[in-house]
Amino acid sequence: MYSRMRSFIPTPRAGQGAPSGNALRHTQAADVIEVSPSTMRRIEQGRVGIKGPALTALLNQYGVTDAELRETLLTMARSGKQRGWWAKYGDLPPTYRQYIGLESAADELQNFETIVVPGLLQTEEYARAITSGEATQPTPEAIEQRVAARLERQKLIHEGNLRMVAVLDEAVLHRQIGGPEVMHAQLTALLDASKLWNVSIQVIPFREGAYASMLSSFAILNFAESPGVVYIEGLTGDLYAEGEDVRRCTVVFNSLRASALSATESTAMIKKIRDSEYQD
To answer: Which residue among 107, 118, 187, 248 has the highest number of C-beta atoms inside a 10 angstrom radius?
Structure first.
Protein backbone atom coordinates (compact mmCIF):
# COMPACT_ATOMS: atom_id res chain seq x y z
CA MET A 1 0.00 0.00 0.00
CA TYR A 2 2.73 2.47 0.90
CA SER A 3 4.45 1.94 -2.43
CA ARG A 4 1.18 2.88 -4.06
CA MET A 5 0.97 6.06 -2.01
CA ARG A 6 4.45 7.04 -3.15
CA SER A 7 3.39 6.89 -6.78
CA PHE A 8 0.60 9.43 -6.13
CA ILE A 9 2.70 11.98 -4.24
CA PRO A 10 4.34 14.52 -6.54
CA THR A 11 8.05 15.15 -6.27
CA PRO A 12 8.87 18.58 -4.79
CA ARG A 13 10.46 20.96 -7.25
CA ALA A 14 14.05 22.07 -6.91
CA GLY A 15 14.62 25.71 -6.19
CA GLN A 16 15.41 28.25 -3.50
CA GLY A 17 18.61 26.44 -2.63
CA ALA A 18 17.01 23.01 -2.33
CA PRO A 19 18.93 19.99 -3.66
CA SER A 20 17.74 18.32 -6.85
CA GLY A 21 16.84 14.80 -8.05
CA ASN A 22 16.79 11.92 -5.56
CA ALA A 23 18.54 14.08 -2.95
CA LEU A 24 15.59 16.47 -3.04
CA ARG A 25 13.07 13.71 -2.53
CA HIS A 26 14.89 12.12 0.37
CA THR A 27 16.39 15.07 2.22
CA GLN A 28 13.53 17.56 1.95
CA ALA A 29 10.82 14.99 2.57
CA ALA A 30 12.83 13.52 5.45
CA ASP A 31 13.20 16.96 7.04
CA VAL A 32 9.47 17.63 6.78
CA ILE A 33 8.51 14.55 8.79
CA GLU A 34 11.69 14.56 10.91
CA VAL A 35 13.13 11.21 9.87
CA SER A 36 16.46 10.22 8.37
CA PRO A 37 16.90 10.08 4.56
CA SER A 38 17.39 6.31 4.85
CA THR A 39 14.02 5.94 6.61
CA MET A 40 12.44 8.10 3.90
CA ARG A 41 13.84 5.73 1.28
CA ARG A 42 12.34 2.76 3.09
CA ILE A 43 8.96 4.52 3.18
CA GLU A 44 9.17 5.13 -0.57
CA GLN A 45 10.09 1.49 -1.15
CA GLY A 46 7.10 0.27 0.87
CA ARG A 47 9.25 -1.24 3.61
CA VAL A 48 8.22 1.20 6.36
CA GLY A 49 4.76 2.60 7.02
CA ILE A 50 3.80 6.25 7.40
CA LYS A 51 1.30 7.66 9.89
CA GLY A 52 -1.49 10.07 9.05
CA PRO A 53 0.07 13.25 10.52
CA ALA A 54 3.36 12.66 8.69
CA LEU A 55 1.53 11.99 5.43
CA THR A 56 -0.55 15.12 5.89
CA ALA A 57 2.64 17.13 6.36
CA LEU A 58 4.08 15.73 3.14
CA LEU A 59 0.90 16.42 1.21
CA ASN A 60 0.97 20.02 2.44
CA GLN A 61 4.64 20.37 1.56
CA TYR A 62 4.11 18.99 -1.96
CA GLY A 63 1.06 21.16 -2.61
CA VAL A 64 -1.49 18.34 -2.88
CA THR A 65 -4.77 20.21 -2.48
CA ASP A 66 -7.24 17.83 -4.13
CA ALA A 67 -9.54 16.79 -1.28
CA GLU A 68 -10.50 13.45 -2.80
CA LEU A 69 -6.88 12.44 -3.46
CA ARG A 70 -5.83 13.51 0.05
CA GLU A 71 -8.58 11.42 1.62
CA THR A 72 -7.70 8.44 -0.57
CA LEU A 73 -4.07 8.57 0.52
CA LEU A 74 -4.93 9.05 4.18
CA THR A 75 -7.34 6.11 4.03
CA MET A 76 -4.59 4.00 2.49
CA ALA A 77 -2.25 5.04 5.30
CA ARG A 78 -4.79 3.96 7.91
CA SER A 79 -5.50 0.61 6.25
CA GLY A 80 -2.07 -0.14 4.85
CA LYS A 81 -0.27 -1.29 8.00
CA GLN A 82 -0.42 -4.91 6.95
CA ARG A 83 2.64 -5.88 4.95
CA GLY A 84 2.12 -7.27 1.47
CA TRP A 85 2.85 -10.92 0.71
CA TRP A 86 5.84 -9.84 -1.39
CA ALA A 87 7.69 -8.65 1.73
CA LYS A 88 8.93 -12.22 2.28
CA TYR A 89 10.95 -11.98 -0.94
CA GLY A 90 13.77 -9.85 0.40
CA ASP A 91 15.89 -9.70 -2.77
CA LEU A 92 13.25 -8.18 -5.04
CA PRO A 93 14.30 -4.81 -6.52
CA PRO A 94 12.49 -1.85 -4.90
CA THR A 95 10.92 -0.82 -8.21
CA TYR A 96 9.53 -4.32 -8.65
CA ARG A 97 8.10 -4.24 -5.11
CA GLN A 98 6.39 -0.97 -5.92
CA TYR A 99 4.80 -2.40 -9.03
CA ILE A 100 3.59 -5.52 -7.20
CA GLY A 101 1.97 -3.30 -4.57
CA LEU A 102 0.10 -1.34 -7.25
CA GLU A 103 -0.89 -4.46 -9.13
CA SER A 104 -2.20 -6.13 -5.97
CA ALA A 105 -4.47 -3.16 -5.28
CA ALA A 106 -5.77 -2.80 -8.84
CA ASP A 107 -9.13 -3.97 -10.16
CA GLU A 108 -8.12 -4.07 -13.81
CA LEU A 109 -4.86 -4.38 -15.73
CA GLN A 110 -4.59 -3.36 -19.37
CA ASN A 111 -1.25 -4.69 -20.60
CA PHE A 112 0.39 -4.21 -24.01
CA GLU A 113 3.54 -6.19 -24.81
CA THR A 114 5.67 -6.19 -27.95
CA ILE A 115 8.42 -8.67 -27.00
CA VAL A 116 7.48 -11.01 -24.14
CA VAL A 117 4.45 -12.64 -22.58
CA PRO A 118 3.00 -10.51 -19.73
CA GLY A 119 4.27 -11.56 -16.31
CA LEU A 120 0.84 -12.62 -15.05
CA LEU A 121 0.57 -15.09 -17.95
CA GLN A 122 4.08 -16.56 -17.91
CA THR A 123 4.83 -20.19 -17.09
CA GLU A 124 7.50 -20.98 -14.51
CA GLU A 125 10.10 -22.05 -17.08
CA TYR A 126 9.40 -19.09 -19.34
CA ALA A 127 9.71 -16.72 -16.36
CA ARG A 128 12.97 -18.38 -15.34
CA ALA A 129 14.41 -17.99 -18.85
CA ILE A 130 13.41 -14.32 -18.95
CA THR A 131 14.88 -13.58 -15.53
CA SER A 132 18.10 -15.48 -16.22
CA GLY A 133 18.71 -13.33 -19.27
CA GLU A 134 18.46 -9.99 -17.46
CA ALA A 135 21.36 -7.60 -17.93
CA THR A 136 21.82 -7.30 -14.15
CA GLN A 137 22.89 -10.97 -14.06
CA PRO A 138 20.94 -11.91 -10.92
CA THR A 139 22.25 -14.70 -8.73
CA PRO A 140 20.57 -18.13 -8.90
CA GLU A 141 18.91 -17.36 -5.56
CA ALA A 142 17.60 -14.01 -6.82
CA ILE A 143 16.30 -15.66 -9.98
CA GLU A 144 14.33 -18.22 -8.00
CA GLN A 145 12.89 -15.54 -5.71
CA ARG A 146 11.70 -13.48 -8.67
CA VAL A 147 10.20 -16.50 -10.39
CA ALA A 148 8.40 -17.50 -7.19
CA ALA A 149 7.10 -13.94 -6.75
CA ARG A 150 5.88 -13.86 -10.35
CA LEU A 151 4.00 -17.10 -9.91
CA GLU A 152 2.42 -15.85 -6.70
CA ARG A 153 1.33 -12.67 -8.48
CA GLN A 154 -0.66 -14.85 -10.85
CA LYS A 155 -3.09 -15.73 -8.06
CA LEU A 156 -4.70 -12.35 -8.78
CA ILE A 157 -6.14 -13.64 -12.04
CA HIS A 158 -6.60 -17.29 -11.09
CA GLU A 159 -8.60 -16.30 -8.01
CA GLY A 160 -10.62 -13.75 -9.98
CA ASN A 161 -9.39 -10.69 -8.09
CA LEU A 162 -8.10 -8.87 -11.18
CA ARG A 163 -9.50 -8.44 -14.66
CA MET A 164 -6.75 -8.54 -17.28
CA VAL A 165 -6.88 -7.37 -20.87
CA ALA A 166 -3.67 -8.27 -22.71
CA VAL A 167 -2.73 -7.14 -26.20
CA LEU A 168 0.33 -8.85 -27.68
CA ASP A 169 2.33 -8.23 -30.82
CA GLU A 170 2.56 -11.42 -32.88
CA ALA A 171 6.35 -11.30 -32.31
CA VAL A 172 5.71 -12.41 -28.71
CA LEU A 173 4.45 -15.75 -29.99
CA HIS A 174 7.42 -16.41 -32.28
CA ARG A 175 10.33 -15.41 -30.03
CA GLN A 176 11.85 -18.67 -28.73
CA ILE A 177 12.48 -17.88 -25.11
CA GLY A 178 13.71 -20.98 -23.31
CA GLY A 179 13.49 -23.15 -26.41
CA PRO A 180 10.69 -25.00 -28.27
CA GLU A 181 9.45 -27.06 -25.31
CA VAL A 182 9.18 -24.01 -23.06
CA MET A 183 7.38 -22.10 -25.80
CA HIS A 184 4.95 -24.95 -26.45
CA ALA A 185 4.02 -24.98 -22.76
CA GLN A 186 3.84 -21.16 -22.69
CA LEU A 187 1.46 -20.89 -25.64
CA THR A 188 -0.64 -23.67 -24.11
CA ALA A 189 -0.78 -21.62 -20.92
CA LEU A 190 -1.99 -18.61 -22.93
CA LEU A 191 -4.76 -20.72 -24.41
CA ASP A 192 -5.75 -21.91 -20.93
CA ALA A 193 -5.71 -18.35 -19.56
CA SER A 194 -7.92 -17.13 -22.38
CA LYS A 195 -10.66 -19.42 -21.04
CA LEU A 196 -10.80 -17.54 -17.72
CA TRP A 197 -13.77 -15.19 -17.38
CA ASN A 198 -11.53 -12.32 -16.27
CA VAL A 199 -8.80 -12.62 -18.91
CA SER A 200 -8.93 -11.39 -22.50
CA ILE A 201 -6.00 -11.91 -24.89
CA GLN A 202 -5.73 -10.29 -28.31
CA VAL A 203 -2.90 -10.47 -30.83
CA ILE A 204 -1.85 -7.82 -33.34
CA PRO A 205 -0.76 -9.75 -36.45
CA PHE A 206 2.29 -8.87 -38.52
CA ARG A 207 0.06 -8.03 -41.46
CA GLU A 208 -1.31 -5.07 -39.53
CA GLY A 209 1.90 -3.18 -40.33
CA ALA A 210 2.61 -0.03 -38.31
CA TYR A 211 0.30 0.77 -35.42
CA ALA A 212 0.10 2.99 -32.35
CA SER A 213 2.80 2.51 -29.69
CA MET A 214 4.41 -0.40 -31.52
CA LEU A 215 7.81 0.54 -30.03
CA SER A 216 6.71 0.78 -26.40
CA SER A 217 5.12 -1.72 -24.02
CA PHE A 218 3.09 -0.40 -21.10
CA ALA A 219 0.55 -1.36 -18.46
CA ILE A 220 -2.45 0.63 -17.22
CA LEU A 221 -3.51 -0.14 -13.65
CA ASN A 222 -7.07 0.88 -12.85
CA PHE A 223 -8.46 1.13 -9.31
CA ALA A 224 -12.01 1.18 -8.01
CA GLU A 225 -11.68 4.28 -5.82
CA SER A 226 -8.42 5.91 -6.95
CA PRO A 227 -6.95 7.45 -10.10
CA GLY A 228 -5.33 5.04 -12.54
CA VAL A 229 -1.59 4.70 -13.09
CA VAL A 230 0.44 3.90 -16.22
CA TYR A 231 3.58 1.80 -15.75
CA ILE A 232 6.40 1.73 -18.30
CA GLU A 233 9.42 -0.44 -17.61
CA GLY A 234 12.77 0.91 -18.82
CA LEU A 235 16.40 -0.16 -18.87
CA THR A 236 17.52 2.84 -16.83
CA GLY A 237 14.47 3.11 -14.62
CA ASP A 238 10.72 2.56 -14.40
CA LEU A 239 8.22 5.30 -15.13
CA TYR A 240 4.85 5.85 -13.46
CA ALA A 241 2.47 8.32 -15.11
CA GLU A 242 -0.84 9.67 -13.87
CA GLY A 243 -3.63 12.07 -14.75
CA GLU A 244 -3.80 13.10 -18.40
CA ASP A 245 -1.17 10.52 -19.31
CA VAL A 246 -3.50 7.74 -18.16
CA ARG A 247 -6.25 9.08 -20.40
CA ARG A 248 -3.92 9.28 -23.41
CA CYS A 249 -2.59 5.77 -22.83
CA THR A 250 -6.13 4.44 -22.48
CA VAL A 251 -6.98 5.94 -25.86
CA VAL A 252 -3.88 4.27 -27.34
CA PHE A 253 -4.76 0.95 -25.71
CA ASN A 254 -8.25 1.06 -27.20
CA SER A 255 -6.65 1.74 -30.59
CA LEU A 256 -4.39 -1.29 -30.10
CA ARG A 257 -7.39 -3.48 -29.35
CA ALA A 258 -9.07 -2.24 -32.51
CA SER A 259 -5.94 -3.15 -34.52
CA ALA A 260 -5.73 -6.60 -32.96
CA LEU A 261 -7.54 -9.77 -33.86
CA SER A 262 -10.61 -10.61 -31.83
CA ALA A 263 -10.14 -12.84 -28.79
CA THR A 264 -11.46 -15.83 -30.75
CA GLU A 265 -9.22 -15.14 -33.76
CA SER A 266 -6.26 -14.59 -31.43
CA THR A 267 -6.82 -17.95 -29.77
CA ALA A 268 -6.83 -19.62 -33.17
CA MET A 269 -3.54 -17.90 -34.10
CA ILE A 270 -1.86 -18.90 -30.82
CA LYS A 271 -2.90 -22.52 -31.33
CA LYS A 272 -1.73 -22.54 -34.94
CA ILE A 273 1.71 -21.12 -34.06
CA ARG A 274 2.07 -23.52 -31.15
CA ASP A 275 1.26 -26.56 -33.24
CA SER A 276 3.34 -25.55 -36.26
CA GLU A 277 6.44 -24.06 -34.64
CA TYR A 278 6.67 -25.75 -31.25
CA GLN A 279 5.54 -29.29 -31.78
CA ASP A 280 5.44 -31.28 -28.55
So the answer is: 187
